Amino acid sequence: MERVNQSVVSEFVFLGLTNSWSIQLLLFVFSSMFFVASMMGNSLIVFTVASDPHLHSPMYFLLANLSFIDLGVSSVSSPKMLYDLFRKHKVISFTGCVTQIFFIHVIGGVEMVLLIAMAFDRYVAICKPLHYLTIMSPRTCILFSVTAWVVGLMHSLIQLAFVVNLPFCGPNVLDSFYCDLPRFIKLACIDTNQLEFMVTVNSGFISVGSFFILIISYIVIIISVQKHSSGGSSKALSTLSAHITVVFLFFGPLIFFYTWPSPSTHLDKFLAIFDAVITPFLNPIIYTFRNQEMKVAMKRVCRQLVSYRKTS
Ligand SMILES: *[C@@H]1O[C@H](CO)[C@@H](O)[C@H](O)[C@H]1NC(C)=O
């Protein structure tokens, strides 16, 4: 009851990305293309891995988990952004805003743990090939996916616990196209320095930490690829460089949001488009379409779908 009395803010207003009509049109066209493509690509991966027994191995299970979470990444802020792009008055309810923050952080946490699990999987496959099946047992895989969800949920709930009861007394304009903590906190009518510090420590630490874990694991993998193999190393290197590209594209913007002291530039809004729209589209491309086994399986699934449609 107390919060209702304190908070007169029941909705937030987004300023959106830009007022220029031509940039809006450009954003609309590109974002909706990326949105549709990543929803289709990631659903196809989840479906293919689930339905093809050839792909019932740790690497593909993790990939399917990543695609599943990427469906969430695509859905959490882009549909609302697309819907709002041409509207003058872009509003989101208080509950909608908090829900968005909740899911952004669950999904972000899950995605980070899964990326680390996938790097670990490649490390074991390349550096300890004889022990691959014992180390990456079905139990390990399930452990990784459970850990990912537990970490994501905990990370998000801890931060929400700090902010859900904040008093909002009037200011409700967010210079953004989605709700997230750095700007949300700034609107509260108390001194928020400590809260901002908490967000920097929590979200900043988890993103910088995972980023370094990933970079170090890829460096270790690359070094051992070069030491051990001669023939297959260029193929492995090209795969690894693709993974590393994803890591930079995904973490670059995040680290910028959560560790930069004041979210006042326009740069972070445009960087946010990367994580909202482009990374969920890139993941299937980078992890899948360069992979022969996966391409064959996808063709098989598509053929089955087509012939199923014809006969029914
Ligand atoms: C995620 O990984 C687990 C463990 O390997 C697997 O059982 C599950 O089917 C995967 N989930 C999806 C959506 O592919």
Automatic annotation (TrEMBL):
Family matches, as InterPro entries: GPCR_Rhodpsn, GPCR_Rhodpsn_7TM, Olfact_rcpt, Olfactory_Receptors
Subcellular locations according to the entry: Cell membrane; Membrane
Keyword Cell membrane attached: yes
GO molecular function: G protein-coupled receptor activity; olfactory receptor activity
Top-level taxonomic group: Eukaryota
Topology with respect to the bilayer: Multi-pass membrane protein
One Pfam family cited in the UniProt record for this chain: 7tm_4
GO CC, alphabetical: membrane; plasma membrane
Residues in G-protein coupled receptors family 1 profile domain copies: 41-287
Keywords associated with the record: Cell membrane, Disulfide bond, G-protein coupled receptor, Membrane, Olfaction, Receptor, Sensory transduction, Transducer, Transmembrane, Transmembrane helix
Primary residence: membrane
TM helices/strands, residue ranges: 23-47, 98-120, 141-164, 205-225, 237-258, 270-289
Gene Ontology biological-process annotations: G protein-coupled receptor signaling pathway; sensory perception of smell
PANTHER family found in the cross-reference section: OLFACTORY RECEPTOR
UniProt similarity note: Belongs to the G-protein coupled receptor 1 family.
Name of this protein: Olfactory receptor
Lineage, highest ranks first: Eukaryota, Metazoa, Chordata, Craniata, Vertebrata
